[in-house]
User: What shape does this take?
Amino acid sequence: MARMDYTRDNMAGLLRSHDINPTHQRIEIAHALFSRQEHLSADQVMAFVNTRHSETSKATVYNTLKLFLDKGLVREVIVDPSKVFYDPNTSPHHHLYEVDSGKLSDIDARSVQISGLPQLPDGMVTEGIDLIVRVRRQR
Amino acid sequence: MARMDYTRDNMAGLLRSHDINPTHQRIEIAHALFSRQEHLSADQVMAFVNTRHSETSKATVYNTLKLFLDKGLVREVIVDPSKVFYDPNTSPHHHLYEVDSGKLSDIDARSVQISGLPQLPDGMVTEGIDLIVRVRRQR
DNA sequence: CCGGAGATTAGACAAAGTCCAGATTGCCTA
DNA sequence: TAGGCAATCTGGACTTTGTCTAATCTCCGG
Ligand SMILES: [Mn+2]
Ligand SMILES: [Mn+2]
Ligand SMILES: [Zn+2]
Ligand SMILES: [Zn+2]
Assistant: This one.
């Protein structure tokens, strides 16, 4: 995966390539996620997008994140019962979650092997396999 | 693991063995979880406990589930962004989650091998490894 | 019987997320 | 250029899950 610049201009192309009409708000939200390459909650996205002056409503942030999810531009990470994280990294990977700090980092899936999973019930298909390693500071 | 009866009477002993003072409400809540051997949300526990007549308050349900968690009597399962599930099965196991129906079932950890996980950051210790297989009806 | 620790409670509160009806935007066509 | 129109955005009410608190209840030991 080649490194690239996540400028606002490049965001427009990225959105179009995922079949998303690039509006001002959508570009800002994509930029917040992709320029940082971090796992962000809706609240954090909201804060980043509205740092200078209020630009984007809460409804739009939530709608847009759901749209990005539907279109496969971002991924949802469910590790904290109190909020969902959105992940600009859609390549197959797992997560390391530091329960005290809430810090979430990626584990490349290529280095990890999972075997022995049971067969799926008939007519079912795997949507994804989430592996979360929960860690904390040693006491 | 030998099969056993999860009668209310046996719940008292189970609670005591986990260093929990067995009160009426705690016995009812434990019974709701253990007699069913299912993953239940706080809301579902609340509903089961209060079927006949209102017996237990919301605060007590939440307090008690947290107490059970602290004492290691139950486990928390985070798969759905909208609610936490409580799991009476504390033996090492993974989960299969049917995203459409919300149905959650166990995968015995003994049949599954996970290898290649990276070393932990220094001073960190693993609290748990959650593996969730998300499946849906084939379209 | 009394005191007090532990447990329970109602209900106010908070945070995350959803929903809706009205306003705005950006095009397309006449 | 002036509508017309579909897509988008918005404030704010609303819902759901979970937390908190201060008052009350329970039960046991002295
Ligand atoms: Mn993509
Ligand atoms: Mn146990
Ligand atoms: Zn990630
Ligand atoms: Zn389970």
